[in-house]
Write a structure and sequence with these properties.
The protein is an all-alpha fold. It is 80% helix and 0% strand. Helix 4 packs parallel to helix 6 (100-114), helix 7 (116-145) packs across helix 15 and helix 11 runs antiparallel to helix 14.
Length: 400
């Protein structure tokens, strides 16, 4: 197969990176409408269905720790291809699962394979665009990537009307195969300098990151907000379909406000990074997300049967995420150009570990009311706001 590597200034390069980043959310969003059907088909309960998402996020989180060092040693491209091949194999396993335990196992493997796309797409963006242009590039990638959660739930809902639930994972396998072909043909290697895979060197690199207060604060601030959103996603099909009575074919429409908010936040981020610092953008996004979480928490208490009081505040929560994620990534990665893969991997590990914990703990308490997920979102977005305030103060008022 002939290769035709895309030029760094080509908009198609950003589109390809966005498609790679979308591999992660797509693997979550497209199967959300199927979760109630799968629960019945596999003879299980809400808690175990939440575990199918938690196991995916756990695999996604854990492989970050190996993915980054491997990509810093062997290059971005071979690790991207290898991980996506594993993703495709796991999708086939998920489609053939006959018990919830089998599905949990294959979702774990699927998470391992899926993590290479988002993790290394960020590293490639840092390699190519440098520390100053990376925030804008990541914002544009995020805005294009938002098409995945816009389309995926509706697509999954329509598929559930005509096809059995394993078709969801067959679709994901086909998407993975398409990504492998596109990576091979169009993506050039961007690794600036090979790093050692010696365990001591890897530990030194991780130690360097863990001793950086700015890396940790930016990572956890973005991770808390993202974990709140993943807890909402994991609960959404049960809340909207089972508790609020939304027909499965219309379930995807409940995500329209969130998608519009995320696209607006990402678009604003790309536009405003020329005039505002990444620290200002992170603080603004965290404040918006915290206010939105408080609004949906209060709205659900006043109008417990209303779909609107859930959907509208989530638009602003998602807008906050669109502001926070690319700018927090830029802050976290900018001091570490030669270990960008490892830095991106550790950032992803923290974010996905928090998300896996969030979905598991909310799943234990979610029964007949959305209160557990709303309480969790309110608390965790408050923590994110506090960290963002610290980040802003430290970066704008450094110690002499």
């Amino acid at each position: 197969m002939t290769t035709r590597h895309l030029h760094p200034d080509s908009p198609w390069l950003l589109a390809l990176l966005a498609a790679l980043v979308a591999l992660g959310p797509l693997s979550v969003d497209v199967y959300l409408p199927a979760m109630p059907t799968m629960m019945v088909a596999l003879d299980t309960d809400i808690r175990h269905m939440h575990l199918t998402l938690s196991s995916y996020l756990t695999g996604f989180a854990l492989f970050h720790l190996a993915c980054g060092p491997l990509a810093d040693r062997f290059g971005r491209k071979p690790i991207l291809i290898g991980g996506t091949v594993l993703f495709v194999a796991a999708c086939v396993g998920c489609s053939l699962a006959e018990t919830v335990d089998e599905l949990v196992f294959f979702r774990f493997i699927q998470g391992i394979g899926a993590c290479v796309g988002p993790t290394l797409a960020r590293a490639v963006a840092r390699d190519i665009f440098g520390p100053t242009r990376a925030a804008r590039a990541l914002s544009l990638i995020a805005m294009m990537m938002a098409l995945a959660p816009a389309i995926a739930p509706a697509m999954g809902g329509v598929m559930m009307l005509w096809l059995p639930w394993p078709s969801i994972f067959v679709f994901l396998a086909v998407y993975g195969i398409a990504m492998i072909m596109l990576i091979h043909v169009f993506l050039g290697e961007s690794l600036p300098q090979r790093q050692s895979l010696h365990p001591l060197s890897i530990l030194v690199n991780y130690g360097t990151l863990l001793r950086s207060p700015m890396f940790l604060i930016a990572t956890f601030a973005s991770g808390f907000v993202y974990a709140g959103f993943l807890a909402y996603l994991a609960s959404s099909s049960f809340v909207y379909i089972d508790m609020l009575g939304v027909p499965v074919e219309y379930f995807g429409l409940t995500f329209i406000t969130s998608v519009l908010g995320y696209m607006a936040g990402s678009g604003l981020s790309a536009r405003l990074t020329k005039n505002y610092t990444s620290e200002q953008m992170v603080l603004a996004g965290a404040a918006i997300a915290a206010v939105a979480a408080g609004t949906v928490w209060m709205g659900a208490k006043l109008l417990p049967d209303s779909i609107t009081v859930m959907m509208i505040p989530m638009m602003f929560y998602s807008l906050g995420i669109g502001l926070i994620l690319p700018n927090a990534m830029a802050i976290a990665l900018s001091p570490f150009p030669y270990i960008a893969g490892t830095a991106s991997a550790l950032l992803g590990f923290v974010q996905m570990s928090l998300s896996a914990f969030a979905t598991a703990i909310v799943g234990n308490y979610l029964v007949d009311s959305p209160a557990p997920v709303l309480n969790f979102m309110l608390a965790i977005s408050g923590f994110a706001l506090l960290l963002s305030m610290v980040l802003f103060r430290v970066r704008t008022h450094p110690k002499p």
